[in-house]
Automatic annotation (TrEMBL):
Protein name per Swiss-Prot or TrEMBL: Serine-threonine/tyrosine-protein kinase catalytic domain-containing protein
Alphabetical list of InterPro entries matching this protein: Kinase-like_dom_sf, Ser-Thr/Tyr_kinase_cat_dom
Phylogenetic placement of the source organism: Eukaryota, Viridiplantae, Streptophyta, Embryophyta, Tracheophyta
MF (Gene Ontology): protein kinase activity
Domain Serine-threonine/tyrosine-protein kinase catalytic: 10-104
């Protein structure tokens, strides 16, 4: 998908970087390669596989099997939604990296709060508010080129 657009335009942009990041994010979430050979002459892009599972509404089939039961389902759904938004076929429909970082920080805050409440017994709402107040995005924002 992305390669075809690049071959035609011979240009890389911020939005093409966002697309590439979406692919990498899906690879991390699923622990699968971007392209999978389904038969001798046929290959499937990871986004196609994820799309087919999204329609079944079961994120447990999407997430890396080694993480089963060890992550917050809502955080995983949010991360998958972010990745899929990055993979929009229309470049101007893809989020900016600043938006991606903000949304991933929300996922991180939710997950950190879940872990903290599981280990300390604190109310998860209080933990989420505390984690968000830490301003996690400051040192994680992408640097300008």
């Amino acid at each position: 998908m992305m390669l075809m657009w690049y071959c035609i335009s011979n240009r890389l942009t911020e939005k093409s970087d966002v697309f590439s990041f979406g692919v990498v994010l899906l690879e991390i979430i699923t622990c699968r390669s971007a392209i999978t050979r389904t038969s001798e002459n046929e290959k499937t892009h990871l986004s196609q596989w994820v799309n087919s599972l999204i329609s079944q509404s079961d994120v447990r089939k999407i997430v890396d099997q080694r993480l089963q039961g060890d992550v917050d389902t809502n955080s995983v759904w949010k991360a998958v939604e972010i990745a899929m938004a990055c993979l929009s076929a229309t470049a101007n429909r893809r989020p900016t990296m600043n938006v991606v970082v903000m949304e991933l920080n929300e996922c991180l805050a939710t997950e950190m709060a879940r872990i903290k409440s599981a280990t300390t017994g604190f109310d998860s709402k209080d933990s989420i508010d505390h984690m968000i107040s830490l301003n996690l995005g400051t040192e994680l924002n992408p640097r300008a080129r």
